[in-house]
Amino acid sequence: MKDIDRRLFMKLAGAAGCALVLRPDLSFAGEIDNISIAWMTDPVTWDPNQRLSPDPQSILKTVFDQPLDQTPDLTLVPSVVTEWKLADDGLSLHVKLRDDVKFSDGTRLTAEDFAYTYHQRFVKGDQVDLVVGFGVVSDIEVISPTEAVMRFSKPFPTAAQWLAFSASYIVSKAYAEKVGIQGMQTNPMGSGPYMLKEYKRDSRIVLTRRDDYWGEKPSIKQLTFEIIPDPTARLAALESGTVDIAMELSIRDVKRLQKSGNFNAIANPIARIIYVTIRADGTFADRNIRLAAAHAVDKKLLSKAFFGGEAATIDFPTVPGMPGSPKNSSFAYDPAKSKELLAASGYSTDKPVTLSMATTNGQFPGDYDMARAIVTMWEKVGIKANLTVITEAQWYELNASGKLPDASLFVWENGTGDPELFTGHMFNEEMPFATYRTPEVTARVKPLFSEPNYEKRIKGYEELNAYLIDEGAIIPLVQAIQTIGYRKGPTLTPWANGGIGPFAIKSA
Amino acid sequence: MMRIWSWLSDPGLVIGGAIAGLVLACAVCAPWLAPYHPNDQDLLYILAPPVWAPDGAAEHLLGTDSLGRDTLSRLIFGARTAMEVAVAASFGAMALGAVLAHLAGYFGGRVDWLISRLVEIWLSFPPVVLSMLLIIGLGVGTDKVILAIVLVDWTRFCRVLRSEVQVVRGQDYVSFARLVGFAHMRVIVREIFPATLPMLITLFSLQMGISVVVEAILSFVAMGVPADVPAWGQMIADARINMFDAPWGLALPILAIFVTVLSFNLFGDGLRRVLDPRHRANGHV
Amino acid sequence: MIKALLRIVARRLFAIVPVFAVVTVLVFAALRILPVDPAQMSLPPSATIEQVEAKREEMGLNKPIWQQYALWARRAVAGDLGESAQYRMPTAKGVLERLPATIELAMCALVFAVVVGVAGGILLFTVRGTALESLGMALTSVVMALPDFLLALLFILVFGVMLPLFPVNGRLDPGLEVPSHTGFLLLDSLLTGDVSIVASAISHIALPVMALGLAFSPTIVRVLHSSLINTYQQSYIRQARLRGLSDREILFGQALKNAILPVVILVGTQFGGLFGGTLLVEMIFSFPGLGNLMVKAMQTADLSVIMAIALIYCAVTLLFNSLADAAAYLLNPKLRTA
Questions:
Q1: CA nearest B223 in A: which residue?
Q2: What is the mean pLDDT of chain B?
Q3: How far is A381 from B229, CA to CA, in rounded Å?
Q4: Lesser CB count within 10 Å: N end or C end of chain B?
Q5: Which helix (H) or strand (E) covers residue A179, if one does?
Q6: Complex prediction ipTM
Q7: DSSP code of B89?
Q8: Chain C interface residues (partner A, CB cutoff 8 A)
């Protein structure tokens, strides 16, 4: 049996910002009865459109289908939607769907369900996060059971990317009307390859394979997710043999597993970045201070200390190798320059500038440590930061009410690879994610949202990214890595955007 | 003179007092005792083991934590935080509880009823839960932690002292003082208080131990002192994440809390034995 | 006799209702001071200002505080405890799901504490006057310096890292299935008849129970010990000796049932503390009960959950306080004439 060659894997990952994946065109060898995976968080709700949080997406994808899928290098491929065409003015998207997709209750999936999911749900008033992306849909015209046209109130050039993104799963209109929104949250019924067999909140999820699935049948008959929030407990579950795969272990555990005989582990760079958000007002209104803060952070040291050197450092709000990344450009770690800049504004280590910073603790491994390390790095050049701990939910609330501290440590997921869902969303002041709001930035960002020409749009983002870093509007740190430990036996190939699919596991 | 010698014959009092004194001394002399600044990070040298373990080095006698900070220095400064909070909170709880106890026990009637109802309501919360609820309402910070402990633990002083006050109040010399015409306040301060003082001191010592634990619990759940103030509870919370790689980082702060609480408990117990005339009469010194 | 008993208990229980009502008001007020907007938190991040305002209206947040309280109280009595902001599902449901686990833990810990405490107290009493007694007292001092939270951490350190005898997480081994009839895992696992499942349930609850129970037992030991000393000073003990009864007969036949009263009162008044201890112990052992839920709720400022669970803690504490009162009244003939 062959393990993944880590070096080859990393090379490919680094080159294209992606990972190997096993896709339907590769056949599977041998059926596996059950695979148990130690997972970090409970999905909380089984309504797949309800939350954009990245963690539940892998699980939701087993029960529901997305209209479009992504290949390892994050290009879009057909799934339930076989063809899609964006109008030249970006105001409509014409889609064609498969005719052989059945929900697990036996009913056919039609364009009616598509229209229900991406428009009627919001009109009805369902509180779902899917509205963040598709709120711009003004109408969906159902031409036939396999054809529909989405119309937008504003040009929406990234409509297709959003169809392949989080929370974008097609739900059954008839079922939704039958069980209501509460029923959707507790009893999922989808068209995906698995059905929910058992669910104990915060404890376990058991999924069984459907034999009437339209697509490639995965080789695993039963998937069990054991919800274990504590990383040391996940490791213990793996080592004791109660699970086959354990997600999100610490880097130290990964290294230890790699040395052991029965287990292996990978640290997979994914389309997720860790960075420091900056406010455009308050203390950071002074450009010198912003740039001083940015130059003072030793990103390589952060990667080495907290990610064992496995996390690639980034200088722009995107992942290396993805479109929108300015080429041949970088940002130096230069504490001397920081001190110079601060001195120009009248500050020094004896007379430091004070600001506030927020961080999460436990949202992802190393978050609190990184924030504290950054605070110390700043202290050394003359910036005194007061650190507070918040949750992800509080971040949104503080940002919305304008009370977010001057800086915050944040993590950003972008499964599509498109820069609109990185820079675009981070700096569009109409979105709940923007922290740095100035008229210049808005003027540069807004047109890109409705630019229908792909090359022009990407070039626009390259220039925007260069401008943002020049202005110190954001301090990108590292590309996040996903760690996975597994028992030697099944081989495993994860996606670059962090999801693991049952297709990606095959017995060797 | 005799009194002091008999105090020294109680082993709990002596041992407890000595260790408690040591902890207090650590707290006071922290800046001079600690080899490093407690917040000095060394990102290239994280989770180092203590000097007696393999890979340990003399530079960091007790190893380092996940940010490379010296554990020994953090323990010493943690003692300072613990003692600051404990002393202030214990005095506060004692003051509040004692005042209310004396008022209730001395005046009786409506005053007593009101204060007793207040105590009853307060006691319907488990102490840990109440302190956390208070912190949620007050916000985080060292002074808020002290306030929270005062607001939770005053009941302990109040209840015990109230019955003591009632006993003393029934004594003849108190009635005599009232008869002679002394004002209430004077009677309370001059006659009653000195009699309740021994119990007060004993409770204070026990409260010190309790305050240390509550402070540790609050910083463990990140609802205590600010993050840049070294605290044993915070050390435990950080060390727990890496406990398989660095178990000493978890064991040492636990030991610190245990030793401190034990010493104050022993001292308090010893004080009670020595100061309580009933115990002395039974020869239980 | 039974009727009198029930009347006493009922009277005590009714007495706590006004106290509980006051407690609900206090907790409600305390949580409303928070600079947190519950409406904002329960909507998706892209919610517009109008939507937040609408939600505020719906939740009644713009009304004066006593009206908000009345609204909450009315809904609560009907069983609606609001909606959890982080889970976006009814609070009552989430809390009820977790309640059996915590009750099971607290009860087992209580039994453990009482068994160990009473046995220890009797033992310490039988060696009174010897050096062993001083040793025993010293041991109680040592254990008393280890509150439940430290004991839990120590157990994790010892049994998680050094001697993996007991599991340190959760309620059951991953991979085991137990159909839920009562919600109490120990009972449900006994019902399956599968020894390995029962063993797994017991081994998972062992450490949390010991951490909670051991924190409580030294006090029981001490109280029983001094209570027995006091009881033995009564004249009837001397008479029993003169009549020729053996030490054991005196202890277990006569003295214990008179000496046990302070222990009963202690258990009643301190149970609230034990129940509150489940908060940290569950968090440390990743035990899926109320405590764990409460910690998460406090970290995310999920007000309705915090309120609901805080009130459950208070209700339990008050209940056991009044049961202790009733027990004291029943067991102590002297009090009954008062």
A1: A389
A2: 84
A3: 21
A4: N
A5: helix A173-186
A6: 0.83
A7: H
A8: 36-37, 40-41, 43-46, 85-89, 97, 160, 167-171, 173-175, 177, 286, 288, 299-301
Cα–Cα distance for residue pair A396/C278, rounded to 1 Å: 31
> Minimal Cα distance from A308: which residue of B?
B44
Task: Give me the pLDDT at residue B78, please.
Answer: 95
Phi/psi of residue A400, nearest 5 degrees: -65, -35
- Scanning chain B, the segments in alpha helix (DSSP H) are 2-8, 11-28, 30-33, 71-107, 109-122, 127-138, 142-169, 172-180, 184-187, 193-220, 232-241, 247-275, 277-281
CB atoms closer than 10 angstroms to residue A260: 12
Pairing relationship of beta strands A245-247 and A32-39 according to DSSP bridges: parallel
Nearest-angstrom CA–CA distance, C303 and A286: 38
Residue A370's pLDDT is 93
Looking at residue C300, what is its pLDDT?
74
What is the C-alpha separation between B13 and B18, in angstroms, rounded?
A: 8
Q: What are phi and psi of A105, to 5 degrees?
A: -90, 10
As a whole number of angstroms, the distance between CA C208 and CA C281 comes to: 6
The DSSP code sequence of A435-477 is: ----HHHHHHHHHHHT---HHHHHHHHHHHHHHHHHHT-EEEE
What span, in angstroms and rounded, lies between the C-alpha atoms of B284 and B274?
9
Q: Neighbours of B (≥3 Cβ pairs closer than 8 A)?
A: A, C
Token readout for A377 is 């790095």
- Cα B175 from Cα B97, distance rounded (Å): 24
Report whether A172 contacts A111 (CB < 8 A). Answer: no
Task: Answer whether B249's CB lies under 8 Å from B256's CB.
Answer: no
What are the E-state strand segments in A67-219? 68-70, 76-78, 81-86, 92-97, 137-144, 147-152, 194-200, 204-209
Which tokens sit at A366?
A: 């190393």
Beta-ladder partners of A272: A413
Question: Are A495 and A279 spatial neighbours (Cβ–Cβ below 8 Å)?
Answer: no
The CA distance from B31 to A9, in Å, is 50
What pLDDT digit, counting tens, does each position of A437-495 carry?
Answer: 888 888 888 888 878 788 888 888 888 898 988 888 999 999 988 888 888 766 555 55
Tell me the three state secondary structure of residue A173.
Answer: helix
Q: How far apart are CA C103 and CA C281, in angstroms?
A: 13
Task: Tell me the two tokens of residue C209.
Answer: 């129970």
Q: Does A389 touch chain B (CB under 8 A)?
A: yes
B63 token code pair: 């190893």
Q: Which amino acid is at B278?
A: R
Q: Closest by alpha carbon to A345, among A291, A410, A414?
A: A291
Whole-angstrom distance, CA of residue C70 vs CA of residue C84: 19
Asked whether residue C132 carries a pLDDT value surpassing 50, the answer given is yes
- Answer yes or no: are the C-beta atoms of C101 and C78 closer than 8 Å: no
Residues contacting residue A23 through CB under 8 Å, at least 6 positions apart:
A71, A72, A503
Distance from CA of C110 to the nearest CA of A (A): 26
- Regarding the domain delimited by B10-33+69-276, which CATH topology (the fold level of the hierarchy) does it fall under? MetI-like fold (1.10.3720)
Tell me which of A184-193, A211-220, A347-356, C328-337 is least confident. C328-337
Contact B250 C272 (CB under 8 A): no
Residue B17, token pair as written in the block: 């007092």
A250 at interface of B, judged by CB pairs closer than 8 A? yes
Contact criterion met (CB below 8 Å) for A220 and A80: no
Tens digit of each residue's pLDDT (9 = 90 or more) over C154-171: 988 888 777 777 777 777
Which residue does chain C place closest to B245, by CA atoms?
Answer: C161
Q: Which residues pair with A194 in a beta bridge?
A: A209
Entry pTM: 0.81
Q: What angle do CA A421, A155, C55 make, to 5 degrees?
A: 70
Residues in chain A, how many?
508
Q: Report how far residue A382's alpha carbon sits from residue A351's, in angstroms, rounded to the nearest whole number.
A: 7
Q: In the beta sheet, which residues pair with residue A76?
A: A70
